[in-house]
TrEMBL record:
Gene Ontology biological-process entries: D-galacturonate catabolic process; D-glucuronate catabolic process; pectin catabolic process
InterPro entries: KduI, KduI/IolB_isomerase, KduI_N, RmlC-like_jellyroll, RmlC_Cupin_sf
Protein known as: 4-deoxy-L-threo-5-hexosulose-uronate ketol-isomerase
Protein purpose: Catalyzes the isomerization of 5-dehydro-4-deoxy-D-glucuronate to 3-deoxy-D-glycero-2,5-hexodiulosonate.
Cofactor: Zn(2+)
Gene3D superfamilies: Jelly Rolls, pectin degrading enzyme 5-keto 4- deoxyuronate isomerase, domain 1
Cofactor note as given: Binds 1 zinc ion per subunit.
CDD domains from the UniProt entry: cupin_KduI_C, cupin_KduI_N
SUPFAM superfamilies, per database record: RmlC-like cupins
């Protein structure tokens, strides 16, 4: 079963007049990780898609949806998969890829038949999905934890010590424009992506997970001098337009997956805004 929602692009002038409900409706993905279902948000920012697949006893198929106007999902797209649940596997045109927790998979343009599977229906895989338009068919590739390019950033003194695991980036695997990675904060650190940044040449989406049910994340967005915030629960995601900053702070420990697409594959291509420049 596949379900999807569509989010249209919204400019910074419009957002200045949005109340809490309108911000959440426009930028928060609240329905991810539904058991026994593939769910997508089709965004008009870079035609980026974020979604999830949680297979139980029955596998789930990657199906095309109407906005794609394509015979199969990856006809003109590439796909990134990161598992945040129990052991599972993905079959792509006969290729079998086992994914343990926090392992990733890149699927290139042209794969016609893709299915998601759990090893144990009582401890199902929880596949987080990102997809972007593709102009070239690059090879499928599994990225294990040992394959990641790891950056150690921040410090305990500024409450933002963290490991950035770059999984689906061009230093690790060839892609057209999709980039994904997983950031985990060290014990006692609560701020992610500080100093805050934006990059006008690509969008970004944050998917938060491993957050206790009674805790929350305050995610900051908007222009650097016109910031807004959205409270986010476990296994929810926030879309960040190219004109928006993105950073957040948690009331407890957590991790998040970042995904980007756009015209520039340079990870460090960003405009940074330290706290004293934010309003």
């Amino acid at each position: 079963m596949t379900e999807y929602d569509v989010r249209y692009a919204i400019g910074q002038q419009e957002v200045k007049g949005y109340d809490t409900g309108q911000l959440r409706e426009a930028f928060l993905a609240e329905k991810l990780m539904q058991a026994g279902k593939v769910y997508w948000v089709y965004s008009h920012y870079e035609r980026f898609m974020l979604g999830s697949a949680v297979p139980l006893a029955t596998p789930l198929s990657l199906e095309s949806i109407d906005p794609l106007k394509a015979d199969f999902f990856l006809a003109r797209r590439e796909l990134g998969v990161i598992n945040v649940g129990g052991d599972g596997y993905v079959i792509a045109d006969g290729e079998h890829f086992e994914l343990a927790r926090e392992e990733a998979l890149y699927l290139g343009q042209g794969n016609k038949e893709v299915s998601f599977h759990s090893m144990d229906k009582d401890k199902p895989a929880r596949f987080y999905l990102n997809s972007a338009p593709a102009h070239h068919a690059y090879p499928n590739c599994k990225i294990g934890k040992q394959d990641a390019n790891v950056l150690h950033l921040g410090s305990q003194a500024t409450s933002n010590e963290r490991d950035i695991n770059q999984l689906i980036i061009n230093k690790v695997v060839q892609t057209c424009q999709l980039q994904m990675g997983l950031t985990r904060l060290k014990s006692g650190s609560v701020w992610n992506t500080m100093p805050a940044h934006q990059h006008d040449r690509r969008n970004e989406v944050y998917f938060y997970f491993d957050l206790e049910a009674e805790q929350g994340i305050c995610h900051f967005m908007g222009e650097p001098r016109q910031t807004r915030h959205i409270w986010v629960a476990n296994e929810q995601a926030v879309l960040s337009p190219p004109w928006s900053i993105h950073c957040g702070v948690g009331t407890g420990s957590y991790a998040f997956i970042w995904g980007m697409a756009g015209e520039n594959l340079d990870y460090d291509d960003m405009d940074k805004y330290p706290p004293d420049q934010l309003r």
